[in-house]
Amino acid sequence: MTADDVQAHAAALARRALALPELAGARTVAAYVSVGSEPGTTALLDALRARGVRVLLPALLPDNDLAWGVYRGPESLKPARHGGGRMTLLEPAGERLGPDAVTEADAVLLPGLSVDARGMRLGRGGGSYDRVLARLERARVRPALVVLLYDGEVVERVPREPHDRPVDAVVTPSGVRRFGGPDSGA
């Protein structure tokens, strides 16, 4: 995709996500800053913040768990190198709220490589978001779980491990697909 394509997809993704009832009524949303070829999230983060939503962004800990910080605009992000310097992420500057801060979220926006017809998400393999989902389950809270992807990343099947949890919806530039039927594992 060209840079213009990426920007157009990010704008379409933000419009679709902002129209979700789960985000329309949210007071706190846990999200992430896209990296590399991931669908762009900056427009969505800024739009949520402009609505008065408290946006939490992750900071990767040495054990691959995630602490959270409050997003205060693009200028509040700082580059952080991880994996021996192999990976640079944009993380929130300022106070770290700890891993349990995600349990305050009304919705959690999850990155992924793909989502299948059952609502199962394939991540990058680091386990960070598996820990987030397990933390939410242990806390007995049920925020809306939404994955942001490109259209071609919604597939028929992804591998499923016993610890994997289905998501509620996937948002792509062209639409929203919801899960939760009998075959979803939800």
From TrEMBL:
Binding site for substrate: V33, E38
Keyword RNA-binding attached: no
SUPFAM superfamilies: NagB/RpiA/CoA transferase-like
Molecular function, one GO term: ATP binding
Keyword Metal-binding: yes
Catalyzed chemical reaction(s): (6S)-5-formyl-5,6,7,8-tetrahydrofolate + ATP = (6R)-5,10-methenyltetrahydrofolate + ADP + phosphate
Lineage top rank: taxon: Bacteria
Swiss-Prot/TrEMBL cofactor(s): Mg(2+)
One GO-annotated biological process of the protein: folic acid-containing compound biosynthetic process
Coiled coil: none
Residues reported in the UniProt entry to bind ATP: R121, L122, G123, R124, G125, G126, G127, S128, Y129
Entry keyword set: ATP-binding, Ligase, Magnesium, Metal-binding, Nucleotide-binding
E.C. designation(s): 6.3.3.2
NCBIfam families for the chain: MTHFS_bact
Similarity-based family: Belongs to the 5-formyltetrahydrofolate cyclo-ligase family.
Protein name: 5-formyltetrahydrofolate cyclo-ligase
Organism: Streptomyces sp. R17
